[in-house]
Specification:
The chain has 32 helices and 64 strands. With 1217 residues, it is an alpha+beta fold.
Length: 1217
């Protein structure tokens, strides 16, 4: 017994044992030959009814599928309908031989009854559908004791008539329910006169065998024939079944409303509404599954399903398993067995007329059979139904027999110009005639069109330009030039397919206006995401390029680079994203106009004014899923944890599921490189059987490669597919012969790490072959090794930083380029000295396109990036470091920052022109500052040296030594004559830098990362804090320590002093903030509530509020009147970096009016201090922003991100272009 049937029986065991009386059920099962007399006796020997039921079930579980079906039928016959329903989902599918032998158990007397009643013989080629048969029989058993109607309905060619005839080939059914006989009448589409002829024929058949004196003349009218049939069925055949096949209209059906038992086949589900009596329905699925359809084709050509050509599977797929189409084509192939490709092509080209009659079917060709359903519609409704062909295949809903295409009511309401209630009435008529399907489980109802019907409609309406124009005209009339509301789910169709209809209608101007609109991009991206939009610009590129190819590329590039932002929720501000586009871009022009309008209404937008200084980064960024992306490639196979599935890249359909032979997780799979012999390799975490070769045409593996005793992380074929390289956690790289599956070479990579021991081996992450196959390259720990394939000698060793690990490597298939993915967020391309920066977390995978023009990378930041290898930064290009300082002077801005070459750069102006660039320093620059006059800059280095340089000459004015370790922070006093520095050596130094005089402030026990200089008219106080949990206050005029406060149990991370000097605040790793009184040095408030380290704080300018930010990305506003929490500024959910702010909140600033707050984390956000709501967000290319510099008027903002890009943002002012 199948596992599904067995499980269903076990699940229902308790209900069955409690309800059934086994003696009645076993009578049927003995009659079916399922139970022996001995088995029946053993069951009945049990003392109680429940024990008898349990014993029967135990016997059944030891038998095959036939026992399950016999038991199910017995339940139906004995009126255990509710119990039968429990078992219905587990009904097994028998083999054709099994089905035939089981179904053919019909006694000669019953066979005679069916023949006399005109029931058609089983087709020459027949494959049963047991679930459907059982359902029809179950309904027929309902007519055992009462007249009524069983309606079997479905679309053209779904097999209704064949299944109706097969259902009555059941000895028990005839014996128990219809001992008076079964009478078949084919009704079809007929006029009144034709109907009378059919009824006369039936009367004549029923009157056969009567004595001549009672024989009557034929009835002269339909009404007379109806009464004659009523008499015959009630008096002569009181317990018989009348089968009316292929009934089309209610008049014909009412002619047989004579209070008898009727089985009805029709395309019109609602026909039975016109007659009286009990009614039961059986829907017939419109197609067979692939297995059954292939069985039919195999029987027609006298072959085996597995031996059929590949075209057979394509034919079944193309016709969606339609029994009619499969049978028609099968019969044609029996006569022309070499024409598989020809008939497949006719199906694909919708040449339904050429798929012609080859049996007793009523219609000459497939198109006639499908057209017959349309002809019974009213002319007006017929036109409306044909309109459905213009609608794009919106949602493909998989069905057992093909696909269904889903329509929204509101779309049809617009297309047809009808009210929604009128639309539902029309659709109901289509449903009743099996021209549409309806899902009653949805509210409002969902309606579906089978794609075989849609293909027929498209073939009937080949010139659809006018239909598409009608669609656009109706849309414009209905929405009156304003898009549908994004809150309405029915708008999805328009946002997805409006460009399609415009393009098909030839309305190019309307398409330009739509696609070159930032408003359309905003609405569609919010509803559909960026992928659909990018596809639109590609799909309709030729049409759009006729208007302006540059604008099309501008919109496409904008979406490609910002697509990952558009997948975020809450949805980002597209206008703000577009303000980062080049000034010459149409996207930027439209965004600026909208931003200026917003600014006039008091809304906030920021313009990136130094756009020209941003280097070329990735070409495409996508956000495919929530969670890390561990692998990405240009084409792929899908692997589940332990099994494989092969999919069609063109159609997205499942081709094959392979057997589950791996016991542990599959780590990698790869096809051969050439097309001579396609093989698939897989590797897994299994101990021994961890590497397998598969033939894609077979469900089981072809070979297993033995050698590794630990998990195999990666496998790859050599360029000529002769060898397979495997990389394992056992520390080795092995090469296997593909033909023999034998190990050829083994390289002990672990041996190249002397510090490794037997317990902790160097894991070989992956391997890749050089283009000519002479070298094999692998990655382990922080090293990439290159080996000679023939000799196994190591040719090259490339190490990264000891703080980084190599996650993946890939060699270009046609050049010497090698890409390496690293844990420190970077991709390196060797032989090109190139770095790809932009990921915000570990890079797990990297792969070249076949021509090496593109590079794909995936990361834990949940994104996949596509890079143009010729345009990414070279390692010699300078990137700024985040240790910057900025001076705002009137409308000008001066920026000082070190770069990746360890040179100091000074930039001036909003556009970011380089004013000065120093020579490369021997020790890394760790901090910088600029004097108020902008005449001097200072820098501190890792070796403790401090230098003061003149701007713009770059002349060194002073070199100060004294710190013994890294200098973390430096700052000029207002007059520029004194320089303050703090260091890893736990001291703060006060320098008269012109003379070299130095005052050392000692007392901290841990490094001093920052300090705060507070100036007043009478004195200058310095606040310094440290990881030792203390804060110290110094009098700079006298050099004395004024106060030594043990503030926190954890490290002090930040401090701020109120503008009036009365209060100061400290924040700590202990998750608290404290507010102190500057006069008494007592704590005023202890601020609790943060769930992580409190990293930053700032007083408002009016000193009434304090804002704090933590490492969880949360920002809190506190009242300085009583220390109460006022607001929490935070997203509703965490972002892709598992934070509420893309990372730690590192810096905070209030606007002069205290109404707006700006914060930095993984990106920059502006907040309303009144509501706590975000006003604007600016996404930088990199992340982990260290600080932001804000102009006094709160209109200019400057920062540097983690990949060295400088951002100068200006608040957009209201106005017009």
């Amino acid at each position: 017994m199948e596992e599904r049937a067995r499980s269903c029986l076990l699940r229902s065991k308790d209900n069955l044992e409690q309800e059934i009386k086994v003696s009645y059920l076993m009578d049927h099962m003995v009659s079916d030959g399922i139970l022996t007399n001995d088995e029946e006796a053993r069951v009945l020997n049990k003392p109680t009814r429940r024990e008898q039921a349990a014993a029967l079930l135990e016997v059944l579980l030891m038998k095959d599928n036939r026992a399950y079906i016999s038991f199910y039928n017995a339940l139906v016959r004995e009126s255990y309908g509710d119990l039968a329903n429990l078992l219905h989902s587990g009904l097994p599918l028998l083999s054709p031989v099994g089905k035939r032998s089981f179904a053919d158990r019909v006694s000669p007397s019953v066979q005679a009854i069916l023949s006399e009643g005109g029931v058609p013989q089983r087709p020459v080629v027949f494959v049963s559908r047991p679930a459907l048969l059982n359902l029809i029989r179950e309904k027929l058993y309902r007519l055992k004791n009462t007249p009524g109607w069983v309606t079997v309905f479905g679309m053209a060619g779904s097999g209704k008539s064949v299944m109706a005839a097969e259902a009555v080939r059941d000895h028990a059914l005839i014996k128990e329910c219809f001992p008076g006989g079964v009478h078949w009448l084919s009704v079809g589409q007929c006029e009144r006169a034709d109907l009378l002829v059919r009824m006369q024929s039936l009367c004549f058949r029923l009157e056969q065998g009567q004595s001549s004196d009672t024989s009557q003349r034929p009835p002269c009218s339909v009404e007379e024939a109806k009464e004659r049939l009523r008499f015959l069925m009630h008096r002569r055949f009181p317990r018989s079944l009348l089968i009316l096949d292929d009934v089309w209209d209610s008049f014909a059906l009412r002619s047989f409303d004579i209070q008898c038992r009727v089985l009805l086949t029709t395309r019109n589900r609602s026909l039975a509404d016109s007659v009286s009596g009990e009614k039961f329905e059986v829907p017939v699925e419109s197609g067979l599954d692939e297995k059954k359809a292939l069985e039919i084709l195999a029987l027609y050509v006298s072959g085996k399903p597995q031996k059929l050509p590949e075209e057979a599977r394509s034919i079944v797929s193309e016709c969606k398993g339609s029994p009619l189409v499969v049978s028609l084509i099968g019969a044609l192939l029996r006569e022309f067995p070499d024409c598989w490709s020809y008939y497949l092509r006719q199906l694909q080209e919708k040449q339904f007329k050429l798929i012609r009659k080859s049996s007793s079917y009523d219609y000459e060709a497939l198109d006639q059979a499908m057209n017959a359903s349309l002809q019974v519609l009213e002319p007006k409704h017929r036109d409306l139904y044909r309109d459905l062909s213009v609608m794009q295949k919106y949602i493909k809903v998989p069905a057992k027999d093909g696909y269904l295409f889903f329509f929204f009511l509101s779309v049809l309401s617009v297309l047809w110009g009808l009210e929604s209630e009128e639309v539902e009435d029309v659709l109901q008529e289509f449903v009743n005639k099996s021209l549409l399907f309806r899902d009653c489980n949805q509210r409002p109802y969902h309606y579906y069109l089978h794609d075989l019907q849609r293909d027929f409609l498209v073939e009937q309406n080949r010139d659809q330009i006018e239909l598409h124009k009608k669609m656009i005209h109706q849309y414009q009339q209905f929405y009156n030039k304003r898009p549908p509301s994004s809150g309405d789910i029915d708008c999805l169709y328009w946002y997805r397919f409006l460009p399609y209809h415009m393009a098909k209608a030839g309305l190019s101007k309307e398409l330009y206006s739509l696609m070159f609109s930032l408003d359309w991009v905003t609405e569609k991206a919010q509803i559909m995401g960026s992928a659909h939009l990018i596809n639109d610009y590609v799909e309709y590129g030729e049409i759009l390029d006729e208007e302006n190819s540059e604008v099309r590329l501008q919109f496409q590039e904008f979406l490609s680079l910002n697509g990952h932002h558009l997948e975020q929720r809450p949805f980002p501000d597209i206008v703000q994203l577009a303000l980062s586009q080049p000034v010459c871009s149409e996207v930027y022009r439209q965004a600026l106009m909208q931003a200026q309008k917003r600014a006039s209404r008091g809304q906030l937008c920021l313009d990136l004014v130094n756009k020209n200084n941003q280097g070329s980064l990735s070409r495409l960024v996508v956000h495919p899923q929530q969670g890390s992306v561990y692998y990405a490639c240009f084409s792929f196979l899908c692997a589940n944890p332990r099994s494989l599935s092969l999919w069609s890249a063109e159609q997205g359909t499942l081709i094959r599921e392979f057997g589950e032979e791996h016991e542990e997780q599959i780590n990698h799979c790869q096809f051969t490189n050439t097309g001579r012999r396609v093989l698939l390799a897989t590797c897994s975490n299994d101990k021994c059987t961890n590497t397998k070769l598969w033939n894609p045409n077979k469900p089981t593996s072809q070979n297993t490669m033995f050698g590794h005793m630990e998990p195999v992380n990666h496998c790859c074929f050599s360029p000529n597919d002769a060898y397979l390289a495997t990389s394992s956690s056992d520390g080795t790289l092995k090469l296997f012969g593909v033909s023999s599956a034998n190990e050829w070479k083994s390289i002990d990579v672990n041996g190249f790490f002397p510090e490794s021991d037997d317990e902790i081996k160097a894991i070989v992450k992956c391997s890749t072959w050089s283009a000519d196959g002479s070298r094999i390259i692998c990655a382990a720990r922080n090293t990439v090794f290159v080996f000679d394939v023939k000799t196994s000698d190591m040719l090259l060793e490339m190490k990264t930083s000891r703080l980084s690990t190599v996650q993946y490597c890939h060699a270009c298939p046609n050049s010497s380029l090698l890409a390496v993915a690293l844990s420190h967020y970077t991709v390196e391309v060797h032989k090109k000295n190139t770095e790809c920066n932009g990921h915000l977390s570990w890079v797990h995978c990297v792969q070249f396109s076949p021509d090496a023009s593109l590079l794909l990378s995936s990361s834990s930041d949940q994104t996949i990036r596509l890079w143009e290898t010729d345009r990414v930064h070279t390692s010699s290009a300078a990137a700024l470091k985040r240790d910057s300082d900025v001076l705002f002077s009137h409308s000008d801005v001066t920026i000082v920052a070190p770069d990746s070459r360890n040179q100091l750069q000074v930039w001036t102006g909003s556009a970011g022109a380089i004013l000065f660039e120093s020579e490369e320093l021997p020790s890394r620059i760790r901090c910088t500052c600029i004097s108020r006059s902008a005449s001097f800059v200072a820098l501190g280095t890792e070796d403790g040296t401090v230098q003061v340089l003149r701007v713009p000459s770059g002349k060194t004015l002073s070199k100060l030594t004294g710190h013994t370790r890294t200098v973390h922070h430096c700052q000029f006093t207002d007059d520029g004559e004194t320089l303050l520095t703090s260091s890893e050596d736990t001291t703060v130094r006060v320098w008269k830098w012109r003379t070299g005089e130095c005052l050392v402030l000692e007392g901290h026990k841990e490094p001093v990362r920052r300090f705060h200089l507070s100036n007043s008219s009478s004195s200058s106080h310095l606040f310094s804090w440290s990881f030792d949990g203390t804060l110290k206050v110094w009098d700079l005029n006298r050099g004395h320590m004024l106060q030594d406060l043990e503030c926190h149990k954890g490290a002090v991370l930040s401090c701020d002093v109120s503008s009036d000097g009365h209060l100061f605040a400290t924040t700590s790793a202990d998750r608290t903030a404290k507010v102190w009184n500057s006069a008494s040095w007592e704590m005023n408030f202890l601020l609790k509530g943060h769930k992580d380290c409190v990293r930053s704080c700032r007083f408002s300018w009016n000193n009434k509020r304090l804002v704090t930010g933590d490492d969880n990305g949360e920002i809190r506003l506190w009242s300085m009147l009583d220390g109460a929490l006022l607001k929490i500024c935070s997203r509703d959910t965490k972002d892709s970096m598992d934070s509420f702010h893309g990372g730690w909140v590192t810096d905070l600033h209030f606007s002069p009016d205290n109404r707006v707050l700006v914060s930095t984390g993984g990106y920059i956000k502006w907040w309303s201090t009144e509501t706590g709501e975000a006003l604007q967000t600016f996404y930088t290319m990199g992340a982990n922003l260290k600080k932001i510099h804000v102009s006094p008027d709160f209109t200019t903002f400057v920062t540097v991100d983690s990949i060295g890009i400088l951002y100068v943002l200006k608040k957009v002012e209201g106005g017009s272009l």
